[in-house]
Amino acid sequence: MYAxxxxxxxxxxxxxxxxxxxxxxxxxxxxxxxxxELFPVKEIAACADAVLRKNGPAALQYSVTExxxxxxxxxAAMLDPGRTRLSAENVIITxxxxxxxxxLSKVFIDKGSPVFTENPTYxxxxxxxxxxxxxxxxxxxDSGGIDLASLRKHLARQKPRFVYxxxxxxxxxxxxxxxxxxxxLAKLVRDHDVVLVEDDPYGALRFEGEGLPSLxxxxxxxxxxxxxxxxxxxxxxxxxxxxAGDAELLKKLVIAKQGTDLQTNTFGQYIVNEYLxxxxxxxxxxxVIKTYRGRRxxxxxxxxxxxxxxxxxxxxxxxxxxxxxxxxxxxxxxxxKECITRxxxxxxxxxxxxxxxxxxxxxxxxxNAAEPDIEExxxxxxxxxxxxxx
Amino acid sequence: MYAxxxxxxxxxxxxxxxxxxxxxxxxxxxxxxxxxELFPVKEIAACADAVLRKNGPAALQYSVTExxxxxxxxxAAMLDPGRTRLSAENVIITxxxxxxxxxLSKVFIDKGSPVFTENPTYxxxxxxxxxxxxxxxxxxxDSGGIDLASLRKHLARQKPRFVYxxxxxxxxxxxxxxxxxxxxLAKLVRDHDVVLVEDDPYGALRFEGEGLPSLxxxxxxxxxxxxxxxxxxxxxxxxxxxxAGDAELLKKLVIAKQGTDLQTNTFGQYIVNEYLxxxxxxxxxxxVIKTYRGRRxxxxxxxxxxxxxxxxxxxxxxxxxxxxxxxxxxxxxxxxKECITRxxxxxxxxxxxxxxxxxxxxxxxxxNAAEPDIEExxxxxxxxxxxxxx
Lengths: 390, 390
Description:
2 copies of one chain form a homodimer.
Chain A: H1 13-20, E1 27-28, H2 41-60, H3 69-79, E2 91-95, H4 96-108, E3 114-117, H5 123-131, E4 135-138, E5 141-142, E6 145-146, H6 148-157, E7 162-165, H7 179-191, E8 196-199, H8 215-218, E9 224-229, E10 240-244, H9 247-261, H10 266-277, H11 281-306, E11 312-313, E12 321-325, H12 332-341, E13 344-345, E14 347-348, E15 361-365, H13 371-387
Parallel strand pairs in A: 1-13, 3-4, 3-7, 7-8, 8-9
Antiparallel strand pairs in A: 2-10, 5-6, 9-10, 11-12, 12-15, 14-15
Helix pairs in contact in A: 2-10, 4-5, 4-9, 11-13
């Protein structure tokens, strides 16, 4: 007899689509995978070797649940260069940002607890919240993020355990919050004394313009838990990410983590720490940005070339995704089936809507295909659209 | 506002005691740490290098939730050398065995669901089950494991979501189930169609005698989920462990794992896989066994030398722990405080009793201290006992 929660959870469509990627000739815009050809494999090999020479046994042993101290120190310094607000106590290492969502769910969510999200929102977050049987309310969102009037209305009615947002290059839409929206949202959660979870896996991958302050900065840490990761800036295979926030709240996450997996893998933490010490990190991010910007531009050209006039899309200023909207009566689930016969894949947008809407939308990842493949893949999608009468 | 579950969960005493271990001069019998000086650091460095040369980008990229196929194949072959029952489909990789417990809790436990355990039982399992608000019933246990008459009585009254046992060198008692008890327990759970979770992190660390068949083997996989890990046989820092069982049940665990952490760290999985391919694994285990046997013997001699006649203890045939029983009115929590002033630590046994009993018991780890330190540490415990009037 299974737990009640298993009755409502389904297999992730994305993880299932990922399995198709190994098909020969498949061009996938479906995953959220970074470009593996950019991984600093040689530098990682040198770091792994250095770690084992310098810290051999310790890097392979059990370690503390909150994560190794030097890495937490470095993250605190990255988030607060002046070191006026944050110390290692304000940072814990998580097994990918996905685990931070699991731990937050454990700490905050009872069966039926209200949680507010953007609409659409990150599918993996929905899965996490659903495993804890949260009552997710998708707040109306526009091109500048969550709609504050709508959020205010919902906050007046009930206090959620937390509000979950992704203000930089959102997954799935690629959209970012302008400064004014950030300030107002930071003030709103403070005024209502509501916890805000700010998920920022892509903020470092900005292709143009100036970075905007995080909600975590604007709220001066109060009420905000900030999540980020080295999965997109170094490599996902280490599963090294972090949560930053109030030290007392993090202690709760640590207690939950003890019973969840004891600790994030020690070796991966040491390697990421060594890589940060090597001074190669910012140069590597610059290379990733340059490559992804070229791919973003290639996809933009291909969208203009191969999609019908009835389609519209975002132009992401960073991150990994385009978001495409087809006419209201389009069904991107059916389109995907047609596309898969042509060896091209994307994620149907409805997956990201807690309210099940968005059947006419789709998400395209542009970071995991070379520019010629982006053109070829979009051509295939264009043909599939025609076959589907779109 | 936190979730209800956080009201009942406390910080792990063991994880807290682990933090004291870095104190200079501290001799700790508290953790469950393998001996770091035995870690095959050079061989791991060679494996990490080989993995990055051969599978560079793939070993750093996202991968499937169930774990990389070659490693799952090898584990299936280890568990079923004849390959008559098991394939990769019957194995998933988990982030340490602790995560397997978390995933099993997610899949099986609703608030208030009954779960049966040994008494005493593994503290980390209790933490996991408590995070999901299980109603844990500790079944009377003796030197041969869970008491079957008592288990039968409880099964007649209610069906638990699962029964959790550790039949080899149990944590905390070091005791193992004899063959007859295994056979009867396997039959009992089949007759009652109850899921049995068999946790076996230490089975490979047998110091003498012949290994006995697992419950998983005896039950021919039916009703039994088998958990084991490379944490004790290679190194814990990779957090690479596994669950084996019915393919349909494992699919449920995979769905839960998607929302929990997407996947176990890819690099660690590749390294463990490479290490298994290197053919060094069994030789390494032999070295670990030889060393731990010597330490077990050293602790046995020291127990006889420094503990009063009123104390009794198990003689573990493998694994990592001694279990000591003091007179009924002893309080090992108070003893620990005295011991810590003398720079020696253990875990008070009451931590392992779901019913809060066992205040006169304590757990001693013998794998993480050299033989002279074992003698010195036990001498300090002996002095502390005298100070406490025991």
